[in-house]
């Protein structure tokens, strides 16, 4: 398919974000099972449910636009997933180090999504698609909450690990 106008580009980017969220539903479940911090596990489980809702909102956005999502792969989400999988399998990290790695991976992922949603919201508003922008804004708020929560947990875990290491 040849993209020739801003609406086609918007639909492509929206499809990419839908694939991102669909991918992350599974990733969040994996992370929740492997981390050893209860606060982080709970946040991951909550965000997994939010991410299921993100998928529903994105599907609703396509309905509002009278379009169907494209079959695209979000290589950003795939790359972040692959980075996690490689670290977990090749580095043989302790449970504590894997949890710390996962907080960093979570922060990267949330900031990737925040950037994507901000761009999509701006384009939706410029196209006069206020209902779509509102749906995307709800997803953005969840991503910002998770980024803040993950950062707070990552800081606490780093302080604990450094104190335990005598650094």
Number of helices: 5
The span between the termini is: 55 Å
Number of strands: 0
Domains counted in the coordinates: how many? Answer: 1
Write the element-wise H/E pattern from the N-terminal end onward. Answer: HHHHH
Query: What's the shape?
Result: elongated
- The name of the CATH architecture is Up-down Bundle
In terms of DSSP E residues, the strand content is under 5%
Q: What integer value in Å does the Rg equal?
A: 17 Å
Can you say what the CATH homologous superfamily is?
Ferritin, core subunit, four-helix bundle
Helix content: over 70%
Uncertain parts: none
Q: Characterize the main sheet.
A: none
The CATH topology is Ferritin
Q: What would CATH call the class?
A: Mainly Alpha
Q: Explain this structure to me?
A:
This protein has 167 residues and is mostly helical. It has one domain (6-63, 95-164): Up-down Bundle (Ferritin). Helices cover 84% and strands 0% of the residues. It has helices spanning 6-34, 38-65, 75-90, 95-126, 130-164. Helix 1 (6-34) packs antiparallel against helix 4 (95-126) and helix 3 packs antiparallel against helix 4 (95-126). The longest helix has 35 residues, at 130-164.
Q: What are its keywords?
A:
single chain, 0% strand, 167 residues, 5 helices, mainly alpha, Ferritin
Give the gist of this structure.
The chain is mostly helical. About 85% of the residues lie in helices and about 0% in strands. It starts with 5 loop residues before the first helix and ends with a helix.
């Amino acid at each position: 398919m040849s993209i020739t106008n801003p609406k086609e580009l918007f639909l492509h980017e929206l499809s990419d974000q839908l694939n991102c969220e669909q991918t992350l539903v599974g990733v969040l479940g994996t992370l929740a099972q492997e981390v050893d911090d209860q606060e982080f596990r709970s946040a991951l489980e909550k965000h997994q449910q939010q991410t299921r809702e993100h998928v529903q909102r994105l599907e609703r956005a396509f309905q509002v636009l009278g379009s169907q999502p494209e079959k695209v792969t979000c290589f950003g989400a795939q790359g972040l997933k692959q980075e996690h999988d490689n670290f977990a399998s090749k580095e043989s990290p302790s449970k504590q180090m894997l949890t710390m790695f996962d907080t960093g991976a979570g922060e990267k992922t949330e900031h990737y999504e925040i950037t994507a949603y901000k761009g999509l919201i701006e384009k939706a508003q410029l196209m006069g698609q206020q209902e779509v922008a509102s749906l995307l804004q709800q997803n953005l708020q969840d991503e910002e909450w998770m980024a803040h929560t993950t950062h707070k947990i990552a800081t606490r875990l780093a302080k604990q690990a450094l104190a335990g290491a005598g650094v």
